[in-house]
Amino acid sequence: ASAPDSGPLGRVIATRTGVAVNDGNRRIMVVDFSRETPWPNQIEVDAGVNTGAVLNLVIRRLSEDNRMRVTFEFVPGQETALEFHMRLVGPDGPETEKWLYRWTAA
Q: Which of 62, 69, 4 is nearest to 33 (CA)?
């Protein structure tokens, strides 16, 4: 039997957020995924937010240890809390666990 935190799906290993460089009204989110086996050649991001939109979504492979990085921007506007979700999906279905994140205004 596998340990509860091991398995074939990629896992979230880091989440970072901050103010977008070019626009102080936008925020940027960076999420890193890692897995034991190589990623499929075709991979897409399934991402969303409960209100507003995910903007400038970019996925890229990192050179070390089968890692992928997803970055996106969002505009919180007057919202004080936003709930995001994301996972990476390949031709055969989900390739990662689902990332859930609740952003709150400082």
A: 69
For the stretch 70-99, pLDDT in tens is 999 999 999 999 999 999 999 999 999 999
Residue 59 to residue 36: CA distance in whole angstroms? 19
Instruction: State the pTM of this model.
Output: 0.88
**101 close to 72: Cβ distance less than 8 angstroms:** no
Distance CA 37, CA 44 (A): 17
Element at 46 (helix H, strand E): strand 44-49
101 Cβ contact partners less than 8 Å away, ≥ 6 residues apart: 15, 29, 31, 83, 84, 85
CA distance 68 to 31: 8
